[in-house]
Prior knowledge:
Layout: H1 4-29, H2 33-56, H3 68-87, H4 96-112, E1 120-122, H5 125-155, H6 179-185, H7 190-193, E2 221-227, H8 231-239, H9 246-264, E3 272-277, E4 286-293, E5 296-304, H10 306-316
Parallel strand pairs: 1-4
Antiparallel strand pairs: 2-3, 4-5
Helix pairs in contact: 1-2, 1-3, 2-3, 2-4, 3-4, 3-5, 4-5, 5-10
Amino acid sequence: MASKREKAVISETVSEAEDILIEIENVRSSKDAAATNDQLPSLLQRLYLALCTLQQYKRNKDPPRNAIVEADNALLEAWKALLKTIETLSAGVPNGHFLAARMTLFLMHAFLYQEGFPYDLQDSALNRDRVKNQMAFSNTVDEALRSRLSLIWEKSGKKEDFSWALTHLESKDDIIRTDYNQAAMMALSPEELWKVPGMTGQQLWKPKPGDEPIFEPFENATSYEFAEDEWEDLEDETDQNDDDDKEDEEDDEDDENKSNEDENVGDAEQPIISQTLFSNGPLEGEMEYCLVKGNAESWLEGPRLKLSRQFVQEVTKKA
């Protein structure tokens, strides 16, 4: 069974989620637009803080073996309660689909960095079941987000570019409670989001003829690459980075970049340089679980927003 401390965290989170849900429903039923705009920031802040608190929760020790799955599921219920509350934002609130989508992205961001569930486990049928339950929740989050993005796409007349979904979120020492994240989560519209200090989306850069070659990445760039070919070829190369072997490819790419640095220095031909700032934000988020048996390790793919990322990629052709 869950400890008293864990029960308190779960109980308080579920209670807060239910209270916020009721207040969101009251806002939705209100016909006073000014009052609605006044209340929404406070509700979004409460959701943000509840997610941060749950992300930072950490067990002192695992419950007994015969109660561990029950304890895991109890903790998952708190995450599910917050997801349910977030989904109520989508209907009857100004920019509701946007708010629900952004907060769902943040929920997954929080879950990726959560400390309540271990990442490294002894390989056993029990622990595989534990991981499977967490993956099932992440798939539920993914489907909820994909559904929300689809509604936004249709409502926009299939013109939405989803650039706001590709903005970065912070994690400092695996903690997501930052002033920047709070400001991002309290933005009531995409326009407000882009005004948040430090907000950056995906960026590609091509030097002008005559520019000095630049071999160092931009500040905060998550990836950069060199190419001698046309810009269109470089875009195709960038698109190929979104596959299941991305980490291995990036390692190879880093080695190639270092080699290209030496080869291109002093060359007359101006290299094309692509630099992506903050990549695809939380849509790129992923987590792996390591199962250990003796000296052998096996890895299970954890939460990843596959459906949501694929949807954005397909409709915009540029994610």
